[in-house]
Amino acid sequence: MMNKTKNDGRPALGTALGQLAARECRSLLRALAMRKRRQEGIHEARKSCRRLRSLLPLLPPEQPTNAVNRGLQELAHALAPLRDAHIAARTAKLLATAHETWITPEVIHSLEHRCEQMLDNALKQDPHWRRRRADAQRIIASIHALAWADIRPSLAKKTLKRSKRRVKKAHSKARESRAPDALHRWRRRARKLRYQLEFVRKARHVAGMKKGRSQKYAASAKQLSALTDQLGWRQDFQIFLDAVEQLPTSRDVRALRRELPSKSASWSQAEPLP
Fold it and tell me: Residues 6 or more apart from 105 whose CB is under 8 A from it?
């Protein structure tokens, strides 16, 4: 990675973004190395993969980012079923605070057992995530080799505008269809834009650039964070629904499945208080 600096000794925007990418790479490795809090590590590793993927479009188009993007996507995707199983159990606990008649302790226990079993099986196939960590190391080596210093403020601004257009397009389609897939696509694009805004804002601060635009980026990122949190509950609820369908049949599970069609609309609207 080139180490270009400005006359005042501060790194240029691209170099600062490269430093932030390197920091995120270290966070990814730390997350995969976590043993005592596996689910937290899985969650943090997937977030690091998404953040790093959001940085790649900021690079000049001639940069070889396709393989890196694909590698990060595959790493996050491999961990997704484990994260979803954990989300399903957590969502059931939240719902039980307000709907304990239907979300019984037996249902919660079944979801937690399913989560633990899936994690145990995954660790048997890849003890201590050795294979995943080796994959991450290879991806990180490629990330370090990218020409981060070639990123110019004009290119970053152009990338952010393109991401904003993609969010607006996804929003329009989600508003028209209200389908889970469309809502999830809207959330993914909004989250990606939020990450990009946060990275560029931090890099501008490190580079000593004017605060006005950085403050606008911070305000936009904050709004997107509230949006993605709201859409996130809907996604978590859909993951819960899918998990209930996969549980072994029991009296409580059958009763919940009968009740869900009439309750899903109201239960998915807002996250219940813990």
Answer: none
